């Protein structure tokens, strides 16, 4: 990439991620990390982006995310073009939400993660799958599925404001605004504050993660 093209890309990314207040230096650091991750990617995406495996490994080491199903959902949310790889634009814009997003942006992000089939609703089946995957079931639980079904019914009763048996974004938004802890009601998909700070300190000081 030429210096002129690189400068144009940095400026473009700053504009697209202006809500998160990444400055020019920070965007350049994220781009350098992106290049490092692309180099690790052994797939045919190399040069244009990095693959799912590198993405999962990166979020695991950076933010302690270990749930494979959740990591796949986060990958799909980043991969807006649905190409199976993460481009530099998707990388910077995705991290903008994870690290410095507003409540509105994080609500939209979490909703997309939980909406497994992309139909604009979080169904009871989707709630069940996400909760079953994210909750640690004790061996002594003879009927763990029944306990999860009970949690789903509690969530629907609390969050389904229009009483249609599923959650629209409007339902989800109202619930989260009333009670912020419901933002990750169906599984952790955002980095915690401590890991976010450590990640920023390392990347923006160009220390390998």
How is the topology of this model organized?
Blueprint: H1 3-16, H2 24-40, H3 52-63, H4 68-78, H5 88-100, H6 103-114, E1 121-122, H7 124-134, H8 144-159, E2 167-168, H9 169-178, H10 193-204
Antiparallel strand pairs: 1-2
Report on the structure:
- The protein is mainly alpha-helical.
- It folds into 2 domains: 3-102 and 192-205, Recoverin, domain 1 (Orthogonal Bundle); 103-184, Orthogonal Bundle (Recoverin, domain 1), CATH 1.10.238.10.
- 61% of the residues lie in helices and 2% in strands.
- It has helices at 3-16, 24-40, 52-63, 68-78, 88-100, 103-114, 124-134, 144-159, 169-178, 193-204; strands at residues 121-122, 167-168.
- A two-stranded antiparallel ribbon has the order 1-2.
- The chain is elongated, with a radius of gyration of 18 Å.
- The two termini are 24 Å apart.
- The model is unreliable at 1-5 (pLDDT under 50).
Percentage of residues in strands:
under 5%
CATH uppermost class of the largest domain: Mainly Alpha
Largest sheet: 2 strands, antiparallel
Strand numbers in spatial order across the main sheet: 1-2
Q: Which regions contain 5 or more consecutive residues with pLDDT less than 50?
A: 1-5
By DSSP, the count of extended strands is 2
List the main descriptive attributes of the protein structure presented here.
209 residues, mainly alpha, Recoverin, domain 1, 2 domains, 61% helix
Task: Please outline what is shown here.
With 209 residues, the chain is mainly alpha-helical.
């Amino acid at each position: 990439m030429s210096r002129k093209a690189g400068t144009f890309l940095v400026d473009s990314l700053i504009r697209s991620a202006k809500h998160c207040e990444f400055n020019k230096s920070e965007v350049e650091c994220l781009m350098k990390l992106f290049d490092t991750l692309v180099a690790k990617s052994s797939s045919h995406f190399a040069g244009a982006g990095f693959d799912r495996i590198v993405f999962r490994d990166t979020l695991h080491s950076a933010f302690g995310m270990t749930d494979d199903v959740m990591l796949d959902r986060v990958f799909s949310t980043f991969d807006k073009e649905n190409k199976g790889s993460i481009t530099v634009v998707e990388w910077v814009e995705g991290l903008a939400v994870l690290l410095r997003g507003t409540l509105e942006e994080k609500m939209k992000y979490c909703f997309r993660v939980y909406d497994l089939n992309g139909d604009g609703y979080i169904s009871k089946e989707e709630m069940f799958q996400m909760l079953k995957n994210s909750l640690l079931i004790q061996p002594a639980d003879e009927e763990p599925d029944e306990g999860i079904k009970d949690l789903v019914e509690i969530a629907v009763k609390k969050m389904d404001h229009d009483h249609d048996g599923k959650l629209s974004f409007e339902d989800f938004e109202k619930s989260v605004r009333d009670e912020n802890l419901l933002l990750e009601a169906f599984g952790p998909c955002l980095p915690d504050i401590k890991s976010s700070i450590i990640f920023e300190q390392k990347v923006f000081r160009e220390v390998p993660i």
